Structures are given as C-alpha cells and as structure tokens.
Amino acid sequence: MMRCIEAIKAFKAKGTTSILERGWSTKPLKYHILKGTNSTREMSILQPLSALNIFFFMECYQKDILHYFERSHCFSIRYYKKKTDLYYKKRAQSSIEYFQKQSSQLGKNILQQTGAYFKVLPFESLNAFTDSRIWRMANFRYNYYAKIDYKSCFDSIYTHAYSWIIERNVVDAKNAHNPQLFLTIDRIMQNINGRSSNGIVVGPEFSRLIAEILLEHIDQEILYSLHNDGLVYNAEYSIYRYVDDIYIFANEQATIDKIIAAYRHVGEQYLLKLNELKLTKGCTPCLPKDWLEKTRNLADIISNFFYKGRKAEYNKLPDEERFIVKTDYIPVDRLKDEIAVLLKKYDDDRRTIVSFLLSTLVNNIGKIKEGYSLFGKQKIGKAMLLLDLALYIYAHYPSYEQTRKIISIISYINSELDFKCTPDYHKKLSRSIQRYAFIFQKGNLFDLCDWFPFLIEYNIPLDTKTESIVIAQAEKLNDPIIWGNVLLYSKYNDDLFSQIKVKIENLVEKEISRISPSESMLHLEFWYVLVYHNCPYISSSLRMKIDGIIHSIHSKAIADKEKKPSSIVTGIICDFLKIQSPAGNKPDDSFFNWKISNNFANRIAYRTHQRTLFKKYRTNKYGIYSSLD
Fold first, then answer.
1. DSSP single-letter state for residue 563
2. How confident is residue 617, by pLDDT bands cut at 50, 70 and 90?
C-alpha cells in the first residue's frame, strides 16, 4: 500500500493529470431509501477499489482541498476545515471519553493522514443554523428573505463541471487555481460511478465534500457578480448556504430578485437548475413552519415521561427511586390520536415530524449509556408502553434512519430487561413487533434491511404472510445484500432456509455468468462476488466459480508490466478475497459478514446514539472519531 501512495504522489509531483486514470473504474451498488412523503432517494455503496481510490486521492490532495475551502467559503455554513484542537472522542467499553494522549502518541502527521484533522464548520446541521444567533440576527437586520435550492443537486452535478471551473476562471484570473486538482476530481468521480459523468454518487461523505467544492465556486462567482453590480456583502445583503439550501436576506426586494437571478444564471452554466417549485420569499422574519411548534409540544409531553434532574442529583436519590422513567400514568392512546392528527395535517412534513419525536425517545432512553437506570418496579409494563408508542410513531414513516432509532430503543431497554433470555419478556416483544408486521408488508425493503439481523439476534420470526411478501419484494429488487440478509434470517426454519438458498444459488450463478474477462470489476454483477465469495451456505461448485473469477482478475493484475497503482491495489483486494483459514474456510469477516452477530443491535444503538446526540462522528483504525468518512 505504501508503494502505491509513493507512486501516486510521484505522479502528482510531475504534474500529470492521469494519476488515478487507468484501471480504477468500478460500479457502485445503488439502492433507494425513503425521501419525503411519496418519493425515494438513490444511494450508493462503493466498491473496495473505489474506496481506496478515494483514500489515495485524499492522501494526495487533502492540503489542496483544505486550502480551497479556507479561501472560498464565503457563503457556506457547512464547509471543511483542518482541526486545530487535537481533542478527540473514543469509545471506552460503554463510556465515552475525550482524550489528547493518543493524539500525542500518534503524532499530528498521522492524524492528518487519517482525515482526523477534518471538521465541519460552522454548522453540522440545518437545524443548528436556524436555531443560531446568526439566523435570528439576519432576520432582525434585513427586511426581506428568500430560500432557494438546486433541483436534484447531486444527481445534476456533471463531473466535467470541475474542468469548467478552470476554463471559466471568472472570479480572479490572477488567482492560480490548481488545474490538476479539478481534473482529478472529474476523473475520480467517474471512477467511482462506473465511468458515468452525469451525477455524483450519493452516500459517502466524500461526495458532499466534492459537491461543496463546486458549490463554493458558484458562490464565489455570485459574490463577484454582485460586487460588480455595486452590492455590498453583509451590508445590503447576506447569503447562507447549507449544501444546496440557500438562504438570502436583503434590505430591498429588488436585491433578493437580483441574487436569485444570479444563482439561476450561474448555476445553469454548471448544469444546476433552481427548484422553482420550492422557491419561497417574503418579509422577515422567516418563520418556522407551523408543524414545528406543535411537534415540539408533543415532544415535550414525551420528554416529561422521564426524570429531568442532573446526574449528580440522580446519584443522590435512594436506590429504590434511582430510575428515570416516571411512574406516572402515560396516556399512550391520547398521544397516538394527537400524533395522527398532526401527521394528517402536515403530511408533507411527515419525515421530519417522525424523526423529531423518535429522537426525543432515543435521547431520553439513551441516557442509560450515561449510567442511568430506566425503570423501577413497573419495568415491563412501562417498557412495553414506551415501545408501543415508538413503533406507532415509526409506522408512519419507516425510513432507514428511523429503523435504526427503533432498534436502538429496544437495545437500550434490553440492557435492563433482557428480552432474549426472559421468556415472558421475549413473548411480549415478539407480539409488539408482529403487531406492526404491516410495516414489513408495505415498507421499502432497503429502509427495513437492518431489521433482519435484529430479528435473528432476538429470535423473533415474522408471520408466514409477511415472509412471503418480503421474499416477493426481494425477488423484484434483485439486490445481493438484501438476499444475504433474507438468507440469514431464514435459518430459523430449515424448510424456509432451503427454499431461499436455492433461489440465491440460481441468482448468483446467473449474475456472475455475465461477468466478462474484460474489466471484471467494472461489472455491476461483481457485487455478487464481493458479497458471496465467503458465503458458507452456497454449494462448493458455485464457490469454485466465484474463486475462478477472483483468480482471473488477480492474474491480470500481477501480469501488468506497467505496475500501475490500480493493478497493485486490485491485487491487494484479490489477496483479501482469497484468504482462507488452515481448514480451507473463508473468514466470516469480509465485505459481508455471514456470521450471525450476537450484538448487532448494540452496535446500531451506539452508532445511533452518536448520530442523534453528538452528530456524525466516524471512526478509523486508530479509534479516533472524525467528521469525514
């Protein structure tokens, strides 16, 4: 790996624009999750070769990118900056601690190389911005506002637009842009998206970072254009952009219209169009939507089910009173009615309302991570009431993120009640989930995929009708990861498992037969190799066919006389795919883990806890959390 890094950096030093050009292209695995009330969003999982392509790109260009953001973030309220404080968060068993010692031991250079120096400023979420003093003061200072955004922003970004930045060079002809950086971005975004130049993959944080580069350049052109028109920034107008959401404030309505026209004109130069249907403008203050106050009121009611004192005060309570779920009556049915009325009235905001209410439950129940106990003597009764309320809310919008919150809630409660080993509690949990089986019948399988490892871990089968519907959906989607989850789930029943295994073997054999010897990893069907190469349940003859494809790719990589970095990395990936134990078995831990996990729900709970309470921190091999994937 170090040879690759050195070779690529040597290419970069020579000024060549082809450092990541040959042999890197792969196709991501695309899937769709809920977005809005009646639409879905396409997401992507990158192939290993693409992930390493990004790694090498960041190794070569992270300083250039950081320099670009430092110079260009005029309107952006979510841009990337180098960390300066060297305080990091890590997990120590069940607790979380901030530390500086490890950063000293590793050294600043290593932290920079791993991406731990990146942080997102000044706001990691749009809600944080609209709750901020900056937002409130803008509403005081200016008379008019507008909100605009780009239509299907990531899908509309044309990779060649990064090359156009060099060609247009509108902002400052004397400012020497780094042409190699922009040309390489064009190349790498095609590499990781099957050579497509239309749109950039949605999913990795890397795509947000790359999109930010183009969007900041457009901001710079807008700033330059308005300056030429005699408009003074932060005096006659202010603009705040969070990714593709743009908030405009100005003293005159004519200024608002001029700025919108400028964004429309400049955006179209890079094939980005404003979403005219979502354009809003008016007199300040820009008021929050009606649903927010009503949702906050319901969230306050839910939050009041829990003890609100500080941890020091909680610790002083007598042992028999040391729990945070109050013994007061919980009016679940009344709450359900009020939630139904709210969601019916504000149907277009269903996603946000459900997320808000479930986050309230997760954040309060999640205090168990901080050393609180949840329940007193009324353990199972109160637990099932809260869980039923959570499932009811979730059923109105069972998205991927909300699925993780529900699993987290169950995992937190399980740490006290032990649903797995207490027969009566297990029965009650099973009944609660089966009561909401219609979610699996009507929901989007990609949003529900994390339920299957959970159901395996907790030994909770779905009813036969629901299973049949799930299998029919899996057949339509034809996704290797969905099928892998369904196969693992089916192991509770020998007949069902045999039925699913036959389906999968036929599917895998058909898909891998389409992989041609030329650029095998560029085929979408190669995902079946990545997912099933270490599957212990498929036939030995099918495993041999998969091994044959891996061996063929490996042989070509080794035979590359030019020793291109892409060939070296391809060889490393094939070496990993070919690893076998002394007994001839492949390891469970690979691109798909076929070993049924006993703590899957706990891992989701911890990650969800991080995302809802501490925003988006990620981990790398050193155990250091950073904002960048």
1. -
2. very low
